[in-house]
TrEMBL record:
Transmembrane segments: none
Acyltransferase listed as a keyword: no
Upper taxonomic lineage: Bacteria, Pseudomonadati, Bacteroidota, Bacteroidia, Bacteroidales
Keywords: Signal
Protein name: SGNH/GDSL hydrolase family protein
Coiled-coil segments on the chain, per record: none
Keyword Signal part of the UniProt annotation: yes
Cited SUPFAM superfamilies: SGNH hydrolase
């Protein structure tokens, strides 16, 4: 598939804006900005969100998220739901806006905008994505819809879904004010219900990220479906995968649904997973089951028969809409937390995960195993100073998320990394070591 055939953008109902002031106010040190919201609300920075409707990035200088009203109807309300920045009372043409310093971003550059947000049933359901050039706002031709439910209670499978956006677009001639402005506008054609709420995801999702990818056009494009849970979304591993591939000359057009704790059976019931699958036309699907399920199936394939059944059903549904799709099944990692997942030690847990994943992969044609767990084991032995785990000794750290993305890139392409790879916020030496691990366990 050539790059020209690539749908080069995705939409977001949330927008990051850098400084609303002068270029001098927006001095920065790099071309990346990230919002990853951890801790308790109530800081000085958080109060600016409530009073001035601005939210500053956790990484990167000189940018912030803001909201802007169209001037009609009730004024928007900015608040916090737990740690999640929220906006209520949106009306048609209200928007979220990102403005970031544009010095060094050349005309014709590709911009990556990734975001994770949720909407309730009363919020606007459709949004359009635009950027500002020298002549005014330009449409990217891309739209997105909200998740429709951000409640936290138990109940229906759709409860507490987020929309994940991985959008790439190319800017034309940027304004002379030294700022890149991107906005996402509530664009429902029907009358809005009013009173609805939209929120950014809190930690370990990455709430939003903007990167300048440069002007080079990728050599090729793959369309990829990703379905998983917190082992996939921690620290934005799909965002990392997309950046890694881009730096290697490969554009990934990714559609995804990620929700904590989900099994393959759960994804069969999630509306956003079903919607993503039915878009179809995928070259690859990267699937990640609940972290203990393959090991449980290996230990007792009768008791946990549904693990296999649900994988077969999900693979069949994907192939119904993408007949030529190759499926990549993540073999996840053993961890210390919860008594090594209930399997006693790293070695036992690792073996059960490896054997169980192989059993699942062998039951469906054209399934490839991504040896992420093997890479974790190799890294623990070779570079024990690199911490691959979050504080709970289970989820991936930033390094673990990057290692996962590197393994998936190597499996997708079968290729080594080039001379100018993406480090994705990690120290250069750490990123290099992790890429060497991915190279060794996949390409050998």
């Amino acid at each position: 598939m050539t790059f020209i055939k690539f749908m080069i953008a995705a939409a977001v109902p949330l927008i990051l804006t850098g400084c609303g002031g002068t270029t001098a106010d927006c001095a920065r040190q790099d071309m990346s900005w990230r919002w990853m919201l951890e801790g308790n609300p109530g800081s000085a920075g958080d109060s600016v969100w409530v009073t001035e409707h601005k939210l500053y990035p956790t990484d990167g200088e000189g940018g912030f998220l803001s909201v802007e009203g169209a001037g009609a109807g009730e004024e928007m309300l900015c608040s916090f739901e737990g740690r999640r920045p929220a906006v209520s009372l949106l009306q048609a043409e209200d928007c979220f806006m990102f403005t970031v310093p544009a010095e060094g971003i050349r005309d014709g550059s590709f911009i990556e905008l990734d975001a994770t947000f949720g909407t309730d049933a009363d919020a606007p359901s459709h949004y359009r994505f635009e950027y500002m050039d020298r002549t005014g706002w330009k449409s990217t031709g891309v739209s997105c819809s909200g998740s429709g439910d951000i409640s936290t209670g138990a109940g229906a499978a759709d409860t507490y879904q987020y929309t994940t956006v991985l959008g790439t677009f190319r800017v034309g001639s940027l304004p002379d004010d030294g700022l890149l402005k991107i906005r996402c506008v509530a664009s429902d054609e029907d009358a809005l219900k009013g009173g609805g709420t939209i929120v950014f995801a809190d930690f370990g999702f990455v709430a939003a990220e903007i990167k300048d990818l440069g002007t080079k056009v990728p050599d090729d494009t793959l369309r990829v479906l990703m379905l998983g849970n917190s082992f996939t979304y921690f620290y934005g591993s799909p965002f990392m995968l997309k950046e890694i591939a881009w730096k290697e000359g490969l554009a990934l057009d990714i559609r995804t649904n990620l929700k904590g704790g989900q099994t393959f059976g759960d994804h069969l019931s999630l509306s956003l997973s079903e919607k993503a699958v039915k878009e179809g036309g995928y070259d690859f699907a990267i699937l990640q089951d609940q972290s203990q399920n393959p090991a449980r199936f290996c230990a007792d394939s009768v008791k946990y028969r549904t693990v296999m059944d649900n994988f077969i059903r999900l693979a069949a549904l994907i192939r119904e809409y993408s007949p030529d799709c190759r499926i990549i099944l993540d073999r996840t990692w053993a961890y210390d937390g919860a008594g090594h997942g209930g399997f006693g030690d790293y070695g036992s847990f690792d073996k059960m995960l490896a054997d169980g994943t192989s059993m699942l992969a062998g039951a469906v044609d054209r399934v490839i195993t991504a040896p992420v767990g093997e890479a974790f084991t190799e890294c623990r032995e070779r570079y024990p100073e690199i911490c691959l785990y979050y504080d709970d000794a289970k989820h991936p750290s930033e390094a673990g998320a990057y290692l996962k993305a590197c393994v998936e890139y190597a499996v997708l392409t079968g290729k080594d990394f080039g001379p100018a790879p993406a480090d994705c916020w990690l120290p250069e030496e750490t990123a290099s070591r992790l890429r060497s691990i991915a190279r060794d366990v996949v390409i050998r």
